[in-house]
Amino acid sequence: MRHKGMTFCKLLVLLVLALLLTGCAQQPQAPFDGVIATSDVVFNLDFTALNTTYTSTLIVPEGKEIMADIQCDGGRIDVTITPEDGEPIYTGKRLPTSSFSIVPKTPGKYTVTISGENASGYAHVYVEGAVHYDDEPAENK
């Protein structure tokens, strides 16, 4: 009888340990939790979780710049901007909170790639003058 009681106690202890260790396992990160807004002139990601990559194509007219507003509240945000038929004109890794502009050499289509790893915040990439978040044109901000 005593042997069965010891076996039961050992099994109970192993079960409790297994449950505790399962609770300590790293939970998978959500690929994306947020809002995406895209058009020919705007690519906005607002997120509480970004653990994936998104791309969009912007059409940039002659004389316009590509603008970017990045808010990094945590994690890693990367941005790459590539013309339709060329090498990237901008690559930013581990971007901090910042705003910047890129002057393309030629008008045309530009692919914007935004990646994140455990990131929260936002990435707004848009053509100069475009309405990019809320209802006010960028030149009025």
The low-confidence runs, each spanning 5 or more residues with pLDDT under 50, are: 134-141
Ends apart, CA distance between termini: 81 Å
- Mean model confidence by pLDDT: 86
Q: What would the CATH topology be?
A: Jelly Rolls
User: Got a strand count?
Assistant: 7
Your description of this structure?
The chain has one helix and seven strands, in the order αβββββββ. The chain has 141 residues and is α+β, with helices and mostly antiparallel strands. The chain has a single domain (32-132), classed as Jelly Rolls, CATH 2.60.120.380. Strands 1, 2, 3, 4, 5, 6 and 7 form a seven-stranded antiparallel beta sheet that branches. A hairpin with a 3-residue loop joins strand 1 and strand 2.
Secondary structure topology:
Blueprint: H1 2-24, E1 32-38, E2 42-50, E3 53-60, E4 66-83, E5 90-92, E6 98-102, E7 108-127
Antiparallel strand pairs: 1-2, 2-7, 3-7, 4-5, 4-6, 4-7
Task: Please provide a brief summary of the model.
The protein is 16% helix and 50% strand.
Distinctive features:
1 helix; alpha+beta; disordered C terminus; 7 strands; Jelly Rolls; 141 residues
